[in-house]
């Protein structure tokens, strides 16, 4: 089974999670930043995983456009959807996940979850640092990958889907 992870990221957290998923998938898998790299034809891929991160309640517009433009083809594949998002409440994260992708694709996906977050103040541009300091109340960098969820997410593509 051939797999591809297509992601968008601002500071690298979503890319790191893509790498972790890639490492766990037994099948042939590549990962592509859809903003900085060329996206290949989706035709040869059985499993397609889309990942993005949330800023002020929204996923990157490039991922939304990609999902909408390729919806028909995506609906013919095994789909996984993930977010990196740092809202402290599970309810908020679920809402963000639900709103991040087209409804049809969300319902079609065999795996969907929030898989971690990183607040890396050293990397943040001024405005992001300012906003995050206000929200978080400090400037302590924090990274959390949800290992169990990443394992569960990945399992959907390795069990009974080949
Ligand atoms: C300015 C700013 C705004 C953010 N807004 C949200 C938000 O509305 N909801 C949320 O869950 N996380 C929010 N986050 C957290 C990011 O989603 C989180 O840091 C994520 O890991 C970033 O991933 P990336 O490095 O791949 O872009 C925000 C982070 C920053 C810096």
UniProtKB/TrEMBL annotation:
Gene Ontology molecular functions = electron transfer activity; FMN binding; menaquinone-dependent protoporphyrinogen oxidase activity
Which processes are annotated in GO (biological process)?
heme biosynthetic process
Recorded hits in Pfam families, A to Z, give: Flavodoxin_5
Superkingdom of origin: Bacteria
Q: Which PANTHER family match?
A: PROTOPORPHYRINOGEN IX DEHYDROGENASE [MENAQUINONE] (PTHR38030), PROTOPORPHYRINOGEN IX DEHYDROGENASE [QUINONE] (PTHR38030:SF2)
Q: What is this protein called?
A: Flavodoxin
Its organism's taxonomic lineage begins at: Bacteria, Bacillati, Bacillota, Clostridia, Lachnospirales
């Amino acid at each position: 089974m051939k797999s591809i992870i297509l992601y968008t990221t601002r500071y690298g957290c979503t890319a790191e999670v893509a790498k972790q998923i890639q490492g766990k998938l037994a099948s042939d898998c590549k990962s592509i930043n859809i903003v900085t790299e060329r996206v290949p034809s989706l035709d040869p891929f059985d499993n397609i995983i889309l990942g993005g991160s949330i800023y002020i309640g929204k996923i990157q517009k490039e991922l939304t456009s990609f999902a909408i433009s390729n919806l028909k083809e995506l609906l013919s594949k095994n789909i996984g959807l993930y977010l990196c998002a740092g809202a402290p409440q599970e309810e908020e994260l679920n809402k963000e996940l639900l709103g991040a992708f087209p409804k049809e694709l969300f319902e079609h996906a065999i795996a969907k979850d929030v898989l971690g977050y990183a607040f890396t103040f050293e990397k943040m541009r001024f405005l992001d640092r300012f906003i995050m300091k206000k929200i978080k109340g400090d400037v302590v960098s924090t990274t959390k990958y949800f290992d169990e969820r990443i394992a569960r997410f990945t399992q959907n593509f390795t069990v009974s889907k080949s």
